[in-house]
Amino acid sequence: MTQYSNKSILKALFSAPIFIQVLLTILFITLNHEFSMQSILTVCGINLIIYMLYCVIVIPIAYAISVLLARQYWLNFFTIMLGSVLMWLIVTIIGYLVFIGSLPNSISEWVSTWYFHVIVVFVSCCYWGMLHFFRNDSVA
């Protein structure tokens, strides 16, 4: 018997980044004072593309890691936070290679920005909270 069911892990992974994406979309639109329909649809379309990339790149790796940790009863807040940092570094490396063509000189350039920590902690908390929300009582 595992700590969480596979279905609850998948639901939590799919729903974890939605809140921060909606929040960042609203902030982006309001801070730039872009309230036209074209701007709103463009921002929402780009957000949808980012979410689809998340589904293709992050979810398979995070699902495999989460299932392995859940079988050993090690899927807790601390391991979710470490996994989120690992996934953010992988996505950042892929982003640098695709959009810039090279990696920055040091890893401190990646992790020294404040939004790195905010996004990692917030998405980790959302994933952990969604795991508890979708937890199957018969499994727990």
What is the count of DSSP helices, taking H or I runs of 4+ residues?
6
Shape: globular
Helicity, as a percent range: over 70%
* Radius of gyration using CA atoms only: 17 Å
Strand content: under 5%
Provide the structure class.
Answer: mainly alpha
Keywords: Membrane, Transmembrane, Transmembrane helix
Transmembrane segments: 12-31, 37-65, 77-102, 114-134
Short overview:
The chain crosses the membrane at residues 12-31, 37-65, 77-102, 114-134. Keywords: Membrane, Transmembrane, Transmembrane helix. The protein is an all-alpha fold and 140 residues long.
Describe the protein's architecture and organization.
- The chain has about 140 residues and is an all-alpha fold.
- It has one domain.
- It contains 6 helices and no strands.
- Keywords: Membrane, Transmembrane, Transmembrane helix.
